[in-house]
Design a protein that fits this description.
Length: 281
């Protein structure tokens, strides 16, 4: 009886699961059955999964659970981006974004986000914009989709449209700063938005306002260590421009103490030595 029931479920799904069928890497579960195989792509609102019996299209709206481990290319792409190899990151992440955009799982969404980041690093703003727009299209009700407003503001900053960038940041940032508590996945884009706001204001010559945004990251929204190091460095640079040598030295010293392996550390050490020599007081 149990065997007949399993066969019936498989038939309802359009799949006949034989006795002893080996569960493979990827699993898609609907209300009427389970598909085990290899997810190949997302297309037309369905996930296509390859099984011994053939390839089947499972509508995303019917999914109740999925277990699809990230491909090796995803991990390698993220590592390449972190190491500064943006060309390699794009080579690895773009095929994933093209094939899996819309798959309701974290790594597929993050592939789009990181692909956009890689394009921004290469100053390919149109490709970055396309990646971010795709993320917002397929994942509209996620915190990441909200954070895309910050990414779009980075595109505007790259185009030197500072006023437009500030407006875009405020749309995202103002409601976030009113919250009593932010979980980590929301605090990270908030810190990015504050640093970017500081960059926009600094570009407009509003140095005190820029410094205030950088220091908010250092003192209040410091979950992301890399962003905190960036904020410390930019706060120190701004304080130098304002002639506040003592506080600039403090910021450089804090950066070197807290993040000695940061990409900003070498320049911070150089600047700290120069300020200390020129302004020993």
């Amino acid at each position: 009886m149990r065997m007949n029931r399993l066969i019936a479920l498989g038939t309802l799904c359009g799949v006949l699961l034989p006795l002893g069928y080996r569960v493979q890497a990827d699993t898609l579960q609907t209300r009427t059955g389970t598909y085990n195989g290899q997810v190949m792509r997302v297309e037309g609102g369905s996930v296509f999964i390859k099984m011994p019996q053939g390839e089947f299209a499972v509508p995303i709206r019917d999914l109740v659970r999925l277990d699809v481990p990230p491909p090796a290319a995803y991990e390698k792409g993220i590592a390449a981006l972190k190491s500064g190899n943006t060309k390699e990151a794009i080579t690895l992440l773009k095929p994933l974004a093209d094939r899996f955009a819309g798959l309701p799982i974290a790594w597929a969404m993050d592939s789009l986000m990181q692909l956009g980041e890689a394009y921004l690093e290469q100053k390919d703003v149109s490709a970055a914009q396309a990646a971010f727009d795709t993320l917002k299209k397929f994942y509209p009700n996620t915190p990441q989709a909200q954070a895309v407003d910050v990414k779009n503001a980075r595109v505007l900053y790259a185009l030197q449209k500072f006023d437009d960038a500030i407006k875009a940041i405020k749309v995202y940032l103002d409601p976030q700063l009113k919250k009593d508590f932010l979980p980590a996945d929301q605090e990270v884009p908030v810190s990015e938005a504050l640093v970017l706001m500081g960059d926009c204001l600094a570009a407009k010559g509003q140095l005190n306002e820029a410094m205030d945004n950088y220091l908010k990251v250092v003192t209040l929204y410091d979950y992301d260590d890399a962003r905190k190091a960036e904020a410390l460095f930019k706060a120190a640079q701004t304080l130098e421009k304002l002639g506040n040598w003592r506080r600039a030295k403090d910021c450089y010293s804090d950066l070197l103490a807290d993040a000695p392996d940061s990409p900003y550390a070498a320049e911070a050490k150089k600047q700290l030595d120069a300020i200390t020599k020129a302004h020993p007081e």
